Amino acid sequence: MPTRHKTPNSQRWRALFFISIAQLMVVLDGAVMNIALPSAQQALHFTDGSRQWVVTAYGLAFGGLLLVGGRVGDMLGRKRVFLFALAGFAIASAIGGLAANVEMLLVARALQGAFAALLAPAALSLISLLFTEPRERAKAFGVFAAVSIAGGAVGLIAGGLLTQYLNWRFAMFILVPIAIIGIVGAISTVHDNGERHRARLDIPGVLLASLGLVGLVYGFSAAESHGWSAATTIGSFVAGVLLLAAFVVVQSRVKAPLLPLGVLSERNRAAAYLSVGLAIVSMFGMFLLLSYYFQQVKGWSPVMAGLAFMPMAVLQALGATQVGARLAHRIAPRPIMVGGYLVSAAGLVLLALLDADSSFLEIAVAEAVVGIGVGAAFMPAMSISTHGVAPADVGVASAMISSSQQVGGSIGVALLNTVATGSTASYLVTHGGTAAPVHVQNQALMHGYAAAYWLATIFVVAAALVSAIMVNAGAPESPPATASEDVAPVGVPAPAH
């Protein structure tokens, strides 16, 4: 068995910097493109139907290939896959920036999603392997969580600035130098434990998992554009569920499964995946609705709308690094996760109470409360996502937390947008219809947003309940009993099943 590479303390933190840069690139991509999309559509002359696919192509490839990406990292080495994925992402981004038509842009987006599916679990796995001491591990996951959850808001700002003052193509080109910095820095600073788990790749599992996840992600995308009762939507959901059910059956029978079912059966890991997925439903939907609120109701420019997300971005970062990370090496994960999610729920209630004339201070306070809560909660959730997992499976366990975010995000955008749109339409029916004065139309929009925020609150409260019931990992001072030394999380003893 290979000897673990001894990475000096200072070099581990430099490695974390470059790993976080890679994660920032993945998160930035979606947010930047959302702001740049209207300009890209105008420049390349594609239809509204094609516009949706520019977003969906990335999500389908990313969500569908995440489990495969995690397993490939386990088999070939996380550093090797990490560097390969960074290079591939840079090339795909350059292709997108040079796109001469919508077909070329769609290919670039799908390639970005595929390389992101390799990159995301490799990054999380490398952190698990580099930081094994509880206090350092807590800080490392705090930094990573802050980058992950604040990157979306930063991307909105960057997208607005690049689109408004340069060109939509720079929303893609900007990712190339970020990837190059990550590659150059990671070559000398990032190390894995040298192990390779060259089990035969479970091809049936690959196909069933990828197609099943694609079915679910596409179903939620179709629901947003075609409605929940459309044949395409229902068919996608049914196909996705059946394929994933078949995947579970296959995994229980094959010798070298893509996803060992033991990864899902441990209660702390399962709670991390489920609670993060539920919370992300709220977060992604909230970002979308706030963006519309800033630009449609408030009439702010794309740059101003992006800057308006800063209170949330800053407090998310502080919640992860100063609250979650500081508490994580002192107390057990459960109270941090439950408390963080409940604080976020309170912030969503404040958002639901906003109206068209609310001041920026009121908006900023609501954003800040949501941000600090989710920042604190996600840090221990990401840490226990690899709790007690065998070194051979750390990549696929890391991929599961990314999968929960991707699926949760797809649900959130479709569900909350549908609820907001339906509630707005119902309000207008009884208040003058589409011919109503502007202030009535704004009231209708706020009515729709409020309905969606109340629903978002329910999802975050559900995440708190899941954490309260399922998480039983111990405080850092408790000695780990079953976790591998390579992947020991923030001091957790063997849980009672």
Q: Which key features would you list for this structure?
A:
0% strand; 2 domains; mainly alpha; Growth Hormone, Chain: A; 497 residues
Output mean pLDDT. Answer: 82
Number of strands: 0
State the helicity in percent bands.
over 70%
Q: Can you tell me the CATH class of the largest domain?
A: Mainly Alpha
What is the makeup of the main sheet?
none
Q: Give the distance, in angstroms, between the N- and C-terminal Cα atoms.
A: 30 Å
Poorly predicted sequence stretches spanning 5 or more consecutive residues: 1-5, 478-497
Shape: globular
CATH superfamily of the largest domain: MFS general substrate transporter like domains
Structural class: mainly alpha
Rg, Cα atoms, Å: 22 Å
> How many individual helices?
17
CATH topology of the largest domain: Growth Hormone, Chain: A
The CATH architecture term of the largest domain is Up-down Bundle
Describe what you observe in this structure.
This protein has 497 residues and is mostly helical. The chain folds into 2 domains: 11-191, Growth Hormone, Chain: A, CATH 1.20.1250; 263-478, Growth Hormone, Chain: A (Up-down Bundle). Helix content is 77%, strand content 0%. The chain is built from 17 helices and no strands. Helix 4 (102-130) crosses helix 16 (394-429). The two termini are 30 Å apart. The model is unreliable at 1-5 and 478-497 (pLDDT under 50).
Short description:
The chain crosses the membrane at residues 12-32, 52-69, 81-100, 106-131, 143-162, 168-189, 201-221, 227-250, 271-294, 300-324, 336-354, 360-379, 451-471. With 497 residues, the protein is mainly alpha-helical. It has helices at 9-44, 48-76, 78-97, 102-130, 134-165, 170-173, 175-189, 203-226, 231-251, 262-265, 267-297, 302-307, 310-328, 333-352, 360-384, 394-429, 438-470.
